[in-house]
Each structure stands twice: as structure tokens, then as C-alpha cells.
Design goal:
Helices cover about 25% and strands about 25% of the residues. It is an alpha/beta fold. The radius of gyration is 20 Å and the shape is globular. Bound molecules: NADP nicotinamide-adenine-dinucleotide phosphate and zinc ion (2 copies).
Length: about 350
């Protein structure tokens, strides 16, 4: 049996998203039913529905920054109860048996984690994401949202928050470390806040200085425009860690040259095009070029608790569902301050 619920879906790579209905499975013994309150808009949603990462099946509901309230639990559920404030991020299941799952790094499941949207679920259906009123998820992939994080602010933590927290933690951002954040959008502005809270010296590298005041307010110590060639000479051999959150292709070698000895540039931005590397740039300063994908369930809970403890919440613009298509255009124009969040009550 299934239940019909309201959603916003893409029907092709080029058509605007439209209101529709989808089916949610009945709550099984390990499942939790969540009434979605808020859903963030991630640039990955746009790459996905426009087929930029490969073709997908339509209609498709995206959205993987989900917060809401538990309204029903399966008979074997122990981690959550009716009324709990919870979140769901980019994955809703994994094999739980491979060495990466056993290490708590389910995002790197060797069998492939089950994405919150466009993935083949255990029952063979295609997963449908958070631009919808309800979702059914196995309890182990449901996070607890701390009371002190405002509900309408919490959603972007489930992707933008964990995707930046994980590499910052892994590469030891902290006191004495110089961290640069390339691109100050949804992910980038969270990277600034989290790196600052971890105690690092934070520099924003943005296309222009138009968001400089915001960057400094959010916790950056320095702010540079990458449109100015002098930025690249002035900052050569400077950073221990660079988080590149840019959604488009960049001259990555120019950024690698900003790393000091043993520095690492971690790409979290996911442009469809390759980023060609000149290996001699890596030889200098023994530099590392790395990637990072979201974060595991345990680390996502750790990030939520860290944000609650440090009073960190994203800068959001609350929108109604009928504004989604306009919001997409503004994200593409780098005109987002700094994450659009859909008020699902308007859906
Ligand atoms: P976003 O809000 O659009 O932010 C991207 C920022 O990149 C923009 O605000 C802009 O910052 C900069 N930018 C955009 N186009 C650019 C260009 N042509 N040249 C230089 N800079 C440009 O997007 P987001 O939601 O933060 O996502 C960023 C990327 O991360 C996307 O590709 C997304 O798919 C990916 N992502 C990856 C993971 C993962 O697990 N690795 C998770 C989530 C998202 P400025 O205006 O400051 O220059
Ligand atoms: Zn995302
Ligand atoms: Zn696995």
C-alpha cells in the first residue's frame, strides 16, 4: 500500500518544476514517517533535474535538505518517536555491511549508498526527495535536529552543513590553520561559519567583492576577489586547506598554487566538466588535490550538535513552493543569500 502526497517535480531537463503528487510507501517496522516542514534548495538539485550529471528518469522530485516532525514510527523503531524534530540528508540507506559502512562512512558505501532522490530503493522504486509534504525513511538514516537550531534554519545543515564540516574536520581545520573557501554560496557560507567556529583563520575567495561585508560578518578574516589577478600572486603558497565549493569549472591549477607545504585543496563543488590538473603544480609544496562527499550518519549528527553548541545556523531565504523555479535562476546567477528554503506548508 502507498499514500498519495503533494510534491514539486521536474518533468524534463528543460521544463520548470510543477506541482504534482507522488506515492510514499507505508511505514514498515524500521521506518519513520516524517511530515516535512522545510526543504532546502541545493545546487545539486539543479545539476540533477537538468541532467547535467547524466540522464535521469522523470518525473523526479529532488531535495535532500529535509527537516520535519515524526508522525508515525514502525513497530521496531527505537531511535525516534512521534513528535521528534528530525532531519534527512542526501542518503536514505546503504548496504551496512561493507568496510566503509562499518566505518560509519555510509556515503562511501561500496555498494553505493541509496540517495534521497534518483536512486533505486530497496523495493525497486526510484527515490523521491524533499520538495514534498512527507517522506518515509529507515530510522538509522534519520537525524535528530537539536532544539536550539531554529526549525526553518536547520534544513541546509543536512547537505551544505555536513558537506563542508566533514572535510574541515578530516583535514583538521582549527587554530593555526589557514583555510580558504572558494565560492560563497550555500556550501561556501557554511564552510566560512564552521571553519571560523573550529578556530581556523578563514579567507573567502569569491568572484567579486560584492559579498565582502557578509563574508566578514559570517566569520571570515579576509576576503579576496578572484576576478583580480593580483589575488593569485598575493596569496601564493598561503593556505593549509582550500575548500572549493564552486559549481562550475575553474582553472584549478591557479588555486592549487595558493597551497603552502603539504596543503590540500578539497573539491566539494561538483561541476559536470573535468578539472584538468597540471601535475607539476602538485609537485610544488607536496600539494594534495582531493574530493569529499557529504558525510556519514554519525558525523552528520556530530555536525548538527556542533552547530547547536556554537550557535551556527545558515543564512536562509524562506520561499513558497511556487517560487522554486525563480529560486533556481537566482542560484544559477550566484544571487542566493545564502540558501533558499522552501516552506513546505505552501506546497
Ligand atoms: P551555490 O549556492 O550555487 O554556490 C556556488 C558558488 O560558487 C556561487 O555562489 C559562487 O560564489 C560560485 N560560482 C558559481 N559559478 C561560478 C563560476 N562560473 N566561476 C566561479 N565561481 C562560481 O551552490 P551550492 O549549493 O553551494 O553547491 C556548490 C557545488 O557543490 C555544486 O556543484 C553542488 O552540486 C556541489 N555539492 C557537492 C556535494 C558533495 O557531497 N561534494 C554536496 C552538495 C553540493 P561567489 O559568488 O562567491 O563567487
Ligand atoms: Zn546537496
Ligand atoms: Zn556499504
Amino acid at each position: 500500500m502507498t499514500t498519495t502526497i503533494a510534491a514539486y517535480a521536474a518533468t524534463s531537463a528543460t521544463a520548470p518544476l510543477t506541482k504534482t503528487t507522488i506515492e510514499r510507501r507505508d511505514v514498515a517496522e524500521h521506518d519513520v514517517l516524517i511530515e516535512i516542514k522545510y526543504s532546502g534548495i541545493c545546487h545539486s538539485d539543479i545539476h540533477t533535474v537538468r541532467g547535467e550529471w547524466g540522464s535521469i528518469a522523470y518525473p523526479q522530485v529532488v531535495g535532500h535538505e529535509i527537516v520535519g516532525e515524526v508522525t508515525e514510527v514502525g513497530s521496531a523503531v527505537t531511535r525516534h518517536k512521534v513528535g521528534d524534530r528530525v532531519g534527512v540528508g542526501c542518503m536514505v540507506n546503504s548496504c551496512r555491511e561493507c568496510e566503509n559502512c562499518l566505518a560509519g562512512e555510509e556515503q562511501y558505501c561500496l555498494a553505493g549508498n541509496t540517495g534521497t532522490y534518483t536512486a533505486v530503493d530497496r523495493d525497486g522504486t526510484i527515490t523521491q526527495g524533499g520538495y514534498s509534504t512527507h517522506i518515509v525513511v529507515v530510522e538509522d538514516f534519520v537525524l535528530k535536529v537539536p532544539e536550539s537550531i531554529p526549525y526553518e534554519k536547520a534544513a541546509p545543515l543536512l547537505c551544505a552543513g555536513i558537506t563542508t564540516y566533514s572535510p574541515l574536520a578530516h583535514w583538521n581545520a582549527g587554530p593555526g590553520k589557514r583555510v580558504a573557501v572558494v565560492g560563497m554560496g550555500g556550501l561556501g557560507h557554511m564552510a566560512v561559519k564552521i571553519a571560523h567556529a573550529m578556530g581556523a583563520e578563514v579567507t573567502v575567495l569569491s568572484q567579486s567583492l560584492s559579498k565582502q561585508e557578509d563574508g566578514l560578518r559570517l566569520g571570515a578574516d579576509h576576503y579576496f576577489a578572484t576576478s583580480d589577478p593580483a589575488t593569485f600572486t598575493q596569496l601564493a603558497n598561503t593556505f593549509d586547506l582550500i575548500i572549493n565549493s564552486v559549481s562550475a569549472q575553474l582553472d584549478i591549477n591557479a588555486y592549487l598554487k595558493l597551497l603552502r607545504l603539504d596543503g590540500a585543496l578539497v573539491n566539494v563543488g561538483a561541476p559536470p566538466e573535468p578539472l584538468p590538473i597540471q601535475v607539476f603544480t602538485l609537485f610544488g609544496n607536496r600539494r594534495t588535490f582531493a574530493g569529499s562527499s557529504i558525510g556519514g550518519i554519525r558525523e552528520t549528527q556530530e555536525m548538527l550538535d556542533f552547530c547547536a553548541e556554537h550557535g551556527i545556523a545558515p543564512e536562509t531565504e524562506l520561499i513558497s513552493a511556487d517560487y522554486i523555479n525563480e529560486a533556481y535562476e537566482r542560484v544559477l546567477a550566484s544571487d542566493v543569500r545564502y540558501r533558499f528554503v522552501i516552506d513546505v506548508a505552501t506546497l
